[in-house]
Amino acid sequence: MKYRLMCLLLTGLMIGCYQSTNIILYPETRTDESISDNYFGTEVADPYRWLEDDNSDETAKWVEAQNKITFTYLENIPQRNAIKERLTKIWNYEKVSAPFKRGGKYYFYKNEGLQNQSVLYSSDKLEGEERVVLDPNTFSEDGTVALSGIYFNHGGNLLGYAKSIGGSDWKEFYIKDLSTGEDRKDHLQWIKFSGMAWAGDGFYYSRYPKPEEGGELDASNENAKVYYHQLGTEQKMDNLIFSDPDNPKISNYIGTSEDERFVYLYRTKGTSGTALYITRAKQGDHQFTPIMENYDYDHGIVGNVGDDIYLQTNYKAQNWKLVKFNYNSPDPENWKDVISESEYPLNSASITGGKLLVKYSKHVSSHLYVYSLDGELEKEVELPTIGTASGFGGQQNDSEVFYNFTSFAYPPTIFRYDIEADTSTLYRQSKVEVDFSLYETKQVFYPSKDGTKIPMFITHKKGLKYNGTAPTLLYAYGGFNISINPYFSVSRMILLESGGIYASANLRGGGEYGEAWHEGGMNLNKQNVFDDFIAAADYLIKENYTSQSRLAVQGGSNGGLLVGAVLNQRPNLCAVGFPAVGVMDMLRFTKFTIGWAWAVEYGDPEESAEAFNYIYNYSPLHTIKENGNYPAVMVTTADHDDRVVPAHSFKYAANLQAKNPDNPNPLLIRIETDAGHGAGMPTSKRIQAATDIWAFMFHNINHTYSTQ
Question: Which of the following is catalytic: 251, 365, 407, 557?
């Protein structure tokens, strides 16, 4: 491949060469002008489609060429090593998860600091002797094989666990006998988006057919079938419980009750909207009784007390509610409200210690409550500040539960709630080398284009003067009913301790204010999400927190789509853009892996002219401006991403470079190897990726990193 590199690569000069020319000469990317598709009378060219072939030598050479330019650029940023040293130092602290109890023992994860993967431990009592149960660092030398799920049987003597390779969503199942510490011979493959639902001497699970060779990371995932695996048998002997070959794009997932009496079948046509069925666990054929057969609402079984089933649902309750029904009369007309819908979203509930432990979100901050099984409010569990609690639940016979609490400037902290004594006490707090008393977080509400008030968290050092000079990173997601809650990030401290601002905007499309908020940013309302994000940036500049020349924007996955679309609509919005693992080709997202399921969220461009026209007008790949005077952009993706396949980012970066060859700011793509959509990435790769983000940002806003 021919390289057209700038003077840095030709003469070996240092980064000053970039600053003096402001031009990068990118690798030439071949185009095939013969490829196009017709959508309702509109012909759309797709000259970079060859980059969708992740198995071709030509694509591999393109990746190598792009990475060579990107990493040469990054390696010559003078601050890069200092940032990595500092990041490695503050990353190196003990990280321990909240413990939970199974089979009379406590289990928890711990990372000593810089281990590539966290280790699963057990102990007979709190603060007792710790024993290694599973050490994923032994799965591979470089840490790229991760532990992607654990599943205890009812007796707590068997542990099912899943491995994922290179960040892929594909899982392989194994069974460990906890009495001997040895793995049994059971080994299951080609599992994705499924856990183990134990019942008797085996478990239910769902899996897809084995993909054809070469299609493991990009072929469409269809026809998920539910099986029962009997322990000690080969996978090919598993009993088929449910399939629907006439509807291959309806996904099927399975769960069992804690007492293993009931089996729940969840069916979904996409990322929201669920049909739900129930039956008793038994041998042989299973006849499922419908609870809700349409796909207009979402539901999740909370648990059961005898034959009474507790269900969390947004059926006739956009902010969710908790209902119960008897197994023999599951129709919605027989549901009884236990906790009615309120003005705030009900996030989760569990039946633990004879109580209902419930979490609500109020203005994007967690609130924990204890209810009786009849739905009578008994107590609110006090939390330290605005932030996010997780894990407030357990098994029905537990007398205690542990939960995590964190916020932007509050280190991850574990609390123990004694259900019988009705007390919550500090159990363990992370010892990060950060003085959190120096920082503060506030929440503001700014107007979007249509006047809707959008919440945003702003974190920085106390006493920071708002004079428009602070380096600022604005992050958002805005989709799939996912809430972006306050949480601590050790990587983020590089920005904050250097006098910067971190802003997290809670855009429509997320779940921060229930289903109505979600619907306000999905399908034909997607432009609201972009408008909300643009308004957040404008607000930060108008209120003098920062300026355009000191602002970077970031988002991943659906948030990568957000950043890509916004940069095309407003190239002068900011100085730096980070679209990560984004859905960039909005006309072909349904073609790969599980992308077809996102049509519920985005609409399907092949289904109607209305959907096509709307999507085509914001699709990041198709709305790139020629000579658009773009900010500095570093696209990030990974070669094993089989959630949002890297072809999205490949095609977007190629087109961005081709249409802006003389852009005054760099337009780069950083392609991680042996990594996926983000889950399971080893610590070493996380640190390097974070280093490169901060180095690229600081260099392109002319900010000198300092801990002072």
Answer: 557
